[in-house]
Structure formats: structure tokens, C-alpha cells
Amino acid sequence: MDLIVTATAQGLLWGMMALGIFITYRILDLPDMTAEGSFPLGAAVCAQLIISGVHPLAATAIAFLTGTLAGAVTGFLITKAHIPGLLAGILTMTGLYSINLRIMGRANLSLLGTEKLTDFFTRFNLPGQFDTIFMGIILVVIMITLLVLFFKTELGQAVIATGDNEKMARSLGISTNQTKMLGLMLSNGLISAAGALIAQDNGYADISMGIGTIVIGLASVIIGEVIFGNLSFVNRLICVILGAIIYRFIIMFVLLIGLQPNDLKIISAVILALCLALPSIRNRFNLNFFQKKELL
User: Fold this and answer.
1) What average pLDDT does range 275-293 have in this prediction?
2) What is the pLDDT of residues 69-111, one digit of tens each?
3) Distance CA 24, CA 32 (A)
4) What is the pLDDT of residue 290?
5) I want to staple 230 with a disulfide (CB 3.0 to 4.6 A). Which of 197, 207, 291, 295 is the partner?
6) Which residues, other chains included, contact 231 with Cβ-Cβ below 8 Å and sequence gap of 6+?
7) β-strand partners of 109
């Protein structure tokens, strides 16, 4: 039971990161490796601010803002320097490694004995990890609500149109450079905020905690889409969160059957490869329970 609760709590927090991946991967149709740098960036900024005495809620909000700056750098490289998206993300990710080390001053920062967001729920004497679950549900509901409201606006629709057909969006008068920049900033802001939350939940920030982030995020998005099929935009966002939780259960299961924790990265890669291969399996064997999805 404890493992189930822990997997659910971790899935909710990682789900916020998956929402950020969803924006670039599915909405903007842009490969963005910045996530592997912006995730530990959020953790580093949040941990350093909390240790300095800043309230954890404010520290998390500032972590979100620093993530948007990282996304803006990648957006600048893509739209102004005309560097391919994948390479631009790798360049930003590489630069962020040194910046994160500068922020933390060393490779690992402990949050032992400091006030964290989950401490707010401790006054209710909840069982272990239930405080993280309640915090995760509240934050996920807020984030999904804000994202849905944003993507229903004219600006949000412009971001979606840019990802669907950039040439057509440009012919309609949409500044696709601005919408790409905005999407990358929003995506990396969410990823950075997720890094801040997971650092608080783990009790430390580490320079290497971003390694494999992009694989986990993609796996969460794909698992949600494959399992739950053709859905509305709102439900797709919810399924991204559910995909992150299911991914955590899969990881928990493979550890329970005796695989080594050191093999988690290759396990994650195999899970993602299987999920990505499922649409091809559907087409090959004419399986109709996997449906193509459309945005809004």
C-alpha cells in the first residue's frame, strides 16, 4: 500500500513536468531538449531560495519564472539565430548545467530541516505521502485549469495553429516566432516548477536530477494517449497526468520483480520505445482500439 501511495504522489508531481513536455511535443510539434536543463534549474533555484529563507511557495513561483527564461533562450536560438530546434535545446541544456552548478555552489543541496510546501499539510496529521498527494492534486487542478483557459484564448489558439501548420498560421497573420517563444517559455516554466516540487519532495536538489527527464515526460504523454484513446483537449491534459502516474506504477512493478534501480534509465528507454511502437503495431495488425487524436 505504501508503494502505491508513493507512486501516486510521485506521478502527480512528475505529471506537471509531463504537461510541459506535452506543450512542446504535441502542441508545438517541436523537439525540445531544454527540459533536461530546466528541470534541475527549477530544483536548484528553489532549493537555494528555501535555504536562504524564502517561503517555499515563492521559491517555487520563482523557479517557474527562471524556467520561462530558459525556454526564452531556446526560443531565441530557434527564431532569431535560426538554429534547428533539437540543437537549440541541446545548447541551452548544456549551458544550464554550468548555471545550475553556479546557483547551487556544489553538486547537491540538502533541504533537511527547512520548510517545504508539503509542510502545510502536516498539521492535518495525514498518513505518509498523503500530504504530497493532496498538494499534487491541488497544483495539477490549478495548472490544467489555467492551461485550458489559456489555450481557449486567441493567443492560445495561435500557439496551437503554429504547431499544426506553421505556414498556414503565418499566412493568417500569426507571428509564429512569438508563439513558438511563448510555448517554449510556458513549457519550460512548468518543467522547472516540477523540478522545484520534486526537489522539495525528495528533500534535496542534485545537479544530475535532470538526466532522463525528457524520456520520462515523453513516456508519460505517450502512455496517457495510448491507453485512453481519442479524447478532448481537457481530457488529454488529464490523461498526461494519469500517464505519469501509470509510468510510476510500471517503474514500481519492475523494481518489485527484482530489477536493479541502477537499470532505471534503460527500463525507462524500453518503456518509451514500446509506447512509441504501439501506433505502428496498431496499423500493422489493424487494431481499432488505438485512435488518432486531434487537438481541440
Assistant:
1) 64
2) 999 999 999 999 999 999 999 999 999 999 999 999 999 999 9
3) 7
4) 46
5) 291
6) 239, 293
7) 205
Among the listed residues 191, 190, 60, 46, the one whose alpha carbon sits nearest the alpha carbon of residue 111: 46
Place of cell 538554429: 83
Contact 106, 95 (CB under 8 A): no
Q: Which of 15-29, 186-200, 211-225, 277-291 shows the lowest per-residue confidence on average (mean pLDDT)?
A: 277-291
Sequence-distant (6+) residues with CB within 8 A of 74 are 32, 34, 85, 88, 89, 91, 92, 184, 188
Residue found by looking up cell 518509451 in the block: 272
Give the DSSP letter of residue 127: P
Q: For residues 285 and 206, what is the distance between their CA atoms, to the nearest angstrom?
A: 44
Q: Is the pTM of this model over 0.85?
A: yes
Cβ neighbours, 10 Å, residue 53: 9
Q: Which of 140, 139, 141 is nearest to 120 (CA)?
A: 139
The upper half-sphere exposure of residue 120, i.e. CA atoms within 13 Å in the direction of its Cβ, equals: 12
Bridge partners (DSSP) of residue 108 are 206
Residues 6 or more apart whose Cβ sits within 8 Å of residue 292: 230
* The three grid cell numbers given for residue 94, joined into one nine-digit string: 548544456
